[in-house]
Amino acid sequence: MDETELRKMSTGHIFGAFAVVLSVCVPVLSVDGFSFLGTHLSWLCICSLCVILVNILLLLLLKPNASSKKTSLSNKLSKLTKSCIYFVISCFLFHGIIVLYGAPLVESVAETFLFAVLLSSFTTSRCLCLLGPNFSAWVRVFSKDGALSVWDHSLQITTVCSVVGAWLGAFPIPLDWDRPWQVWPISCSLGATLGYVAGLLIAPLWIYCNRKRLTYKSR
Amino acid sequence: MKVSSSVLASCCLLIQVFGAMLFIRGFFPLPVRSQSRKSTSAETPPEPATAGLLSNWTKLPSPLFKKVVVLLIDALRQDFVYGPKGKKHMPYLTQLVEKGTTHSFIAKAAAPTVTMPRIKALMTGSIPGFIDVVMNLNSHELLDDNVIWQGKQAGKRIVFYGDDTWIKLFPKHFAEYDGTTSFFVSDYTEVDNNVTRHLDDILKRNDWDMLILHYLGLDHIGHLTGPHSHLVGPKLLEMDTVLKKISVALMSQEEDISVPSLIVLCGDHGMSETGSHGGSSEEEVQTPLVLISSAFEEKGGISKLPEIIQQTDIAPTLAISLGLPIPQNSLGILVPQTVEHKSMREQLRFLHLNGHQLCMLLRQNLEAYEKDAGVEQFKKAEKSHGNWIKLYLEGNASETLTNLGKKVLKQYLEALKNLSSSLGKQIAEYDIYSMSIGAVISLEILFLLLLSIPNALSSRAEFDIPLSSPLFSLLFYMMCLVLSAIHVIVCTSSEKVCFFCSISWVLALGIMMFISALSCIVLSTLSKMLAKSQYPNKKQDSIFSGWSELDLLLLIGTLGHVISMGASSFIEEEHQTWYFLTNTLCLALAQEMCRKYFLVKKSNFLDSAEGEDSKNESLYMDKIYDTHKKELKEQTLPLLSQFAKQHEKWIALSSPWAILIICRLLRTLNQTGIQWIHRPDFGHWLTSSEHKPELSFLVAVCLVMIFILIQGRCSFVSKVALAFGLLGIYCYRAAIGHVLYPWQNNSNGLSKGITEARFVYIFVLGILFTGTKDLLKSQVIYTDPQTKSLGLWEVYSGFILLAALLYRPHNLVVLVFCLLMQTTLSMFIWNLLKHDAAQITIMHYWFGQAFFFFQGNSNTISTVDISAGFVGMENYVELPAIFLTMFITYSGPLLWAIHLLWYLSSETHRVSTTVAHGCYCYAAIRSIPVTVYILVVTAFRYHLFIWSVFSPKLLYEAIHLLISAGVCVMFTAVDKNQISKSEN
Ligand SMILES: [Zn+2]
Ligand SMILES: [Zn+2]
Question: For this UniProt entry, which segments traverse the membrane (chain A) (predicted)?
Answer without folding.
Answer: 12-29, 41-62, 83-101, 113-133, 154-175, 181-209
